[in-house]
Specification:
The protein is an alpha/beta fold. Helix content is 41%, strand content 15%. Helix 6 links the parallel strand 6 and strand 7. Helix 4 packs antiparallel against helix 5, helix 7 runs parallel beside helix 8 and helix 9 packs across helix 10. It starts with 12 loop residues before the first helix and ends with a helix. The structure holds 6-hydroxymethylpterin-diphosphate. 6-hydroxymethylpterin-diphosphate binds next to strand 6 and strand 10.
Length: 403
């Protein structure tokens, strides 16, 4: 008879604690061991060579490791990127060890500390009607395009009555938020004048906001549209430009105390698909989102009220979009809730060979499920009922326990 040695799948420290306790381990021991089960890999960029040498030594002394550039040992390179490998417990010990160290290591320690804190923090968005408790279950944002030319439903809800009917239907189907947009941002689209956008969205927001129990978000990059929509009842700003197209946008959100979604896009909708090559896509998107967070924080938006979105389909190849879905969890280290909008997008069509956007339902639902499995707090979807079912199932599986 053998010992039945096998792998365990422990996705969080609660599940780890349960499995450790099954051995009959002492509760104090379980508390000490629960953070030892998973190795985190943290990337840091541009460390000075002496700093990287110290970091490597400290991590080895803690039982972890750090990958550094080859020329670091004899300082033949000036700077290096690093990958630090350690358990949460080792990383916390590293933070303490880095405090008295020179060469920027104290700052590195502070960044690691902030990252670890952000991972465990409950995620909540405060809007005028209440609080969205994102940590408690995945949230679905229903898309309401009041446009004649959106890529998948252009014209369907351009008429006010149809838009309102659709919105109420989405709430009924389980939407936790509604996103109203008056300008298509599909690849190649041109900007709509502000007056035109206002004429499309304001009546819809004004009618909807007092009649639905969920927050209405305004999908715009124009501060004038956001301000007027907020006055009309919108309570979240969704800016596909990550607060970059209009310098007043961050201030408008801050003043209204509205949560703000910052999305990554390279270029503008007109130009974004012209060149979708990146040196390091995930790093570039990550850095750009961090800068958007800084713009929002500088204007007075609390960090925990900023939602980050890697911008599926905005200046990325199909392969790039798939990669972002696969590595989505990395964006959690920004310390903000994560949103993903993959619904009906072209990469699903390319991957599965489906031309008509409305025929991409199953792929869209799979993408939403994958996003939630990989840490998305909010998924933006056209087909709310189907998406709701899928993400609720993923969530139930993630939390499943015996008994
Ligand atoms: N995608 C679209 C529009 N707004 N906002 C966020 N935060 N994330 C997204 O992925 C996103 C977005 C584009 O999709 P859609 O609204 O369906 O189409 P169109 O821009 O053609 O109206």
């Amino acid at each position: 008879m053998g010992f039945d040695v096998r792998l365990l799948e422990l996705s969080d420290s609660r599940q780890t604690a349960e499995e450790l306790a099954r051995t009959g381990a002492d509760a104090v021991g379980v508390g000490k061991m629960r953070d030892k089960a998973a190795i985190l890999a943290l990337k840091g960029c541009g460390l000075k060579a002496p700093a990287a040498n110290i970091l490597k030594q400290e991590m080895l002394s803690l039982g972890g490791d750090a990958a550094v550039g080859r020329g670091v040992v004899n300082c033949s390179v000036e700077r290096t990127d690093v990958v630090i490998l350690g358990t949460k417990k080792q990383l916390r010990a590293l933070v303490r060890k880095l405090r008295p160290q020179p060469f920027g290591l104290r700052k590195l320690g502070e960044e690691i500390e902030a990252l670890l804190r952000g991972l465990d923090q409950p995620r909540e968005l405060r809007w005028r009607g209440g609080v969205l408790r994102l940590s408690e279950r995945p949230h679905v944002m229903g898309i309401l395009n009041v446009t004649p030319d959106s890529f998948s439903d252009g014209g369907d809800f351009f008429q006010r009555e149809r838009a309102l009917e659709r919105a109420l239907q989405m709430v009924e189907s389980g939407a936790d938020l509604l996103d109203v947009g008056g300008e298509s941002s599909r690849p190649g689209s041109s900007p709509v004048p502000e007056e035109e956008e206002l004429a499309r969205v304001l009546p819809v927001v004004e009618y909807l906001a007092p009649r639905v129990s969920v927050p209405v978000s305004i999908d715009t990059y124009k501060s004038g549209v956001a301000r007027r929509a907020i006055e009309a009842g919108a309570s979240i700003v969704n800016d596909v430009s990550g607060l970059r197209f209009d310098a007043d946008m961050a201030g408008v959100a801050a003043q209204a105390a509205c949560p703000v979604v910052v999305m990554h896009m390279r270029g503008t909708p007109k130009t974004m698909q012209a060149d979708t090559r990146y040196g390091d896509l995930v790093t570039e998107v990550y850095r750009s989102l961090r800068e958007s967070i800084e713009i929002a924080v500088a204007a007075g938006v609390p960090r925990d009220q900023i939602v980050v979105d890697p911008g599926i389909g905005f200046g990325k190849s199909s392969e790039g979009n798939l990669l972002l879905l696969r590595r989505l969890r990395e964006f959690a280290s920004l310390g903000c809730p994560v949103m993903v909008g993959a619904s009906r997008k072209a990469f699903i069509g390319h991957t599965l060979g489906i031309d008509a956007p409305k025929e991409r339902l199953f792929g869209s639902v799979a993408a939403a499920a994958l996003a939630v499995w990989n840490g998305a707090d909010i998924v933006r979807a056209h087909d709310v009922r189907e998406t709701r079912q899928a993400v609720d199932l993923v969530w139930a599986a993630r939390r499943a326990q015996e008994g």
